[in-house]
Fold these 4 entries.
Entry 1:
Amino acid sequence: MFKLSFFINPMGCVRMTQRGKFIKPNAQRYLSYKSFLQISARQQLKSKQPLKGALDVHIVFSMPIPKSWSNKRKCEVVGRYHTKKPDTDNLVKGVFDSLNKIAWEDDNQVAKVTAVKIYSEHPGIDVTVRELK
């Protein structure tokens, strides 16, 4: 079992190309996001080998609170579920793709996934990985 923490605004997976061309300007931003997750994961795992076998992954996405909200509203939502975009499945895909060959050989090893999006004053991603017997 191991835990990884990333101090970055969570970003959902984006469609990279259409007919071989980038279709959205945030595609480049997404590549930088994945690169950050990969570098950070390598630093945290140091020389550990990628896990093999079935895995249970729990992810908590701490989503930023909009700056335009009042202080009262900000205080009310801290720790509550985030029900806006990006979609949870796109957030998970971004993390899984980033951790291939680093935390595990391939994301097809993940047999059980739990993912939660909550509002937080400190955006980030916490990933817990356990081997299933």
Note: The mean pLDDT is 95.
Entry 2:
Amino acid sequence: MASSGLVGRTMDFPPRTPWHLTYLPAGYQWQPATGDRVVINHHRILGGMRHFGGHYLAGDGVNDAGLFCAELFFPVAATYEVTVRPGTRGLTPQDFILWVLGKHATVAELAADLANVTVVGANWFDGNYYPFHWLLMDASGTYVIEPTGGRLRISRNPAEVLTNTPALPDQIRRLNGRLGLTGTAFCAQAVTNCRGTWPAGGNSATRFQQAALRRWRVRPGTVAEMQDFLKSVTVPHNQDHENNYTHYWAVVDRDQTEYRFTSCRGGKTIKRNLQSLLGPRAITFE
């Protein structure tokens, strides 16, 4: 959810390697899992990341230009290309955020560069493949990138919320059905004026509606208000599903490039700001 310059998200994705708040410096070099040439980042990044075999996977993050990006699970709906198009850089879905935040300052700059990469449905270094779509935010607004029809398609996200599958237009259509509207055009006023019962349940369509209602009826404007919402949609830890729970909350102040990382198992919150992180080496905060 994006509101009043803040972005809040829960990380519910179930990989077994732990998530940590991590800093990557400008000039950081990394290898895409496709085996393509090494990428050299232009921007410093602060985000929730996993580390496996010497490689970082970013679940979300903000860079020193104030560009924010987060991945959300997009099974069934995602269609990636099978092979890398000639003359483009090949990336897996898991590589994509590091390329977005490491190489671009704005959404417009990223949009102009999308044709120069091919995202293929291939395994990452841990031997797994994860389909994603992505939430983006900069000073110009909130956007989504979705891999449909084999290509990456970027569009403005007027709802300013995103969850897992289905795609944004389908999520808005379902929300509109709840509001007595038709089509896929988002109507903020209709959401603001909604006085019906809040949707219950934990699937991604319901969570999208919960987030949209909170975004436009309550309009969280402080870190505490954003954290209250994240608590309300947290998936609790269950021993029957050892890794399928909310691993962390993130609340990011994009304007200040400040990131609050809260571990949902330990309850510890770590706050760091890119303005004070200038060192040449990667740092994992625990």
Note: Residues 2-162+241-285 form a domain with the Penicillin V Acylase; Chain A fold (CATH 3.60.60.10).
Entry 3:
Amino acid sequence: GSMTFETPMLWATGFIFVFTMGGFTGLICAIAPIDIQVQDTYYVVAHFHYVLVAGSLFALFAGAYYWLPKWTGHMYSEFIGKLHFWCSIVFFNITFFPMHFLGLAGMPRRIPDYALQFTDFNAIATVGAFGFGLSQLIFLVAVIKCVRGGEKAAAKPWEGAHGLEWTVPSPAPHHTFETPPVVK
């Protein structure tokens, strides 16, 4: 089979991309002379968020979109799911990518005010942060529309989904198996 890019797969590949970018910035932090320069700067903030936010949120969204049809019994809107992904990945990068440049320019983290030369990149990062935060409302819309109804989800909505959980209707009924199932 070939890979298809439904919403859960987009989030999974987005996770790999952003997490890898964070890993590359971690390699830079591992070089001692450079680490002395970027220690306690916005470079470390950017690195941390590329690894942590991607490592948690992107993977959680992949799992949520994958299991949403099984949990609710209805398919979510693929358009809304993809819109959520693309808005999130774009605004995430608009938020945190400029922080690398701020850190390399010497902007320290944990300060109440910053020098004027850092204004432009901070303004870009602020716009990105608001956009990233607002794009999470798209997920809320997707979940609400999915819970309220929509296209009925099949017991096995994903090609390649194997296991007992995919043999029962969506959503799974209470007392799913009256007798223990035979696992081969």
Note: The chain has one domain: 7-166.
Entry 4:
Amino acid sequence: MTIENTNVSRRTLVKGAAWSLPVVAVAAATPLAAASTSNANVDWTGNNSGLLQLDLLDEGGVITAAAVVTVPDEYTITNGTGAISNEVATVTIAVGTPSGINISLGHVRGFGVVSVDGIATSDAERNVNYASAFGFPTTTWTGTRTVNIASNGSLVVPVVFGLAGESTSLLDVSLLATFPVNLTVEFADGSSYLATSSISVLANAGIL
């Protein structure tokens, strides 16, 4: 009969197990950051000011302001921990009416969105609403854009504004007009962000 000596093999197994434990512990201590849109933030971060040339979205053509016009021209999505990869965001830009200006005859123009991130807006995406037979319109643009941002990175999105609606009034707007602008960026997981700004038109700019 042959009797096998198993003492050496047992020690070898125990020694091997002891060396393997730290490898497992290190792997467990360094998980990858999960992708998320809940750590982001959105702000308007730039503007364009001057005697601007503005597209007439609903009438066709271009008009040049005779007085200074200031419009937001970019927003920035700033991301936190976790990359945002190929996430589709629904973006809405709404422009309200200026307060303190009474238009008693006919319609005047408001502001609408010409392009976002270099992509032209479509008639189907834009809405112009006159609340009555005279005055300024409110406008809304809603579209989708694909968002890719590295962890703790940022994405700058250019926006171009133009004039929306129609001018049927014989009266020039002889007061400073300030139009409120609201930006909403909403992701499919329910994360939603709001940023506010404004468009200003000096008196007698001749574009409204």
Note: Confidence is low (pLDDT under 50) at residues 1-33.
